[in-house]
Amino acid sequence: MKAFTWVEPEDLQSAIAAGAQRGALFKAGGVDVGDRLKEHIDEPATLVNLRRLQGLDFVDVDGGALRLGPLVTLATIADDARIRKAAPALADAAAAAATPQIRNVATLGGNIAQRPRCWYFRKEDFHCRRKGGTTCFAIDGQNEMHAVFDNDLCAIVHPSGTATALTALGASLLLRGPGGERTVAIDDFFVRPERDVMRENVLQPGELIVEVRVPIRQAAYVKLMEKQSFDWPLAEAAVAPGAEPRVVLGAAAPVPWRAPKAEALIKGRKIDEQLAVQAAKAAIEGARPLQRNEYKIALLQTAVKRALLAAGGVA
Ligand SMILES: Cc1cc2nc3c(=O)[nH]c(=O)nc-3n(C[C@H](O)[C@H](O)[C@H](O)COP(=O)(O)OP(=O)(O)OC[C@H]3O[C@@H](n4cnc5c(N)ncnc54)[C@H](O)[C@@H]3O)c2cc1C
User: Fold this and answer.
1) Which of 4, 32, 190 has the most ligand 1 atoms within 8 A of CB, as the residue to mutate?
2) Whole-model pTM?
3) Phi, psi of 78, deg, nearest 5
4) Alpha carbon of 235 to ligand 1 centroid (Å)
5) Ligand 1: residues whose CB is within 6 Å?
6) Does residue 77 surpass a pLDDT of 80?
């Protein structure tokens, strides 16, 4: 590992100023950043530790929205009664991620902004497209864990389970950087490969997620894994029925993937078994599996159906 300078900012402005310097990298819980340093994916000149910043781990339920600070841990999101009551889909997504030990240190901001777990991206020997190369090795390679949608340029799947749930909930993110503050709808936060294959989100140098705003609405999250604990998803779904429905697939595409045909089908309707089956089928329309991941189609369909039944109070 290359030597780097450790910066321990005392307030948000100092953190942003330090993070905007060339070669700087923010660290929150450090679960993803630690791995990336060991894997030589990142060799920062400076690591800016956010972990000890005061006032960024707030949980606030106010009227129709839940407001979360970026340093709230996944363990808190899973266990805090206020969060579970306001946004059970988000609580379930956090509870299903990783291990208890990881959830105790992993933060919401870091979970949303973590980098992909594609084994080609994570191996320094593969100079893939996401690292500035000209090839996606997964497209014709070991692609059983990879994308079934939007996989022409780069077949990563977005790694964040909370992002899947937050997309179904229609959350927005308050960002603060050297140029000031902006609010970005979660639909506009993640970046598809066709727009920029080397980044997963719109964060600029020095820019931080400082608040996650979650509308309080009915929703459900389902994760399917190879083993039932401590595992990454093979397929995920998060859904929010109602007048403005959202059906979102996770572990399916380089970004949390909305399914507009399924959304149109359930709009304003009461969910029953028949509608859930129909909408789940519509959700996987347009999928283009790679050589080794066709199995994901059935899993995604099942995840959507189960999430719809749970959100509709049928399951
Ligand atoms: C064995 C294992 C299994 C896992 N399974 C799952 C799973 O099933 N589902 C899932 O979702 N995750 C899973 N994870 C990933 C884990 O949850 C994330 O690595 C973790 O949430 C990252 O949070 P962190 O606070 O440690 O982020 P860090 O490692 O500190 O940071 C991650 C990235 O986010 C950036 N960042 C951090 N905070 C902010 C902020 N406030 N604003 C802007 N950028 C920021 C950092 O610069 C960095 O690029 C797993 C990890 C492991 C090791």
Assistant:
1) 32
2) 0.98
3) -70, -35
4) 19
5) 25-33, 50, 70, 74, 97-98, 102, 106-107, 109-111, 113-114, 159-162, 203, 208-209, 232-233
6) yes
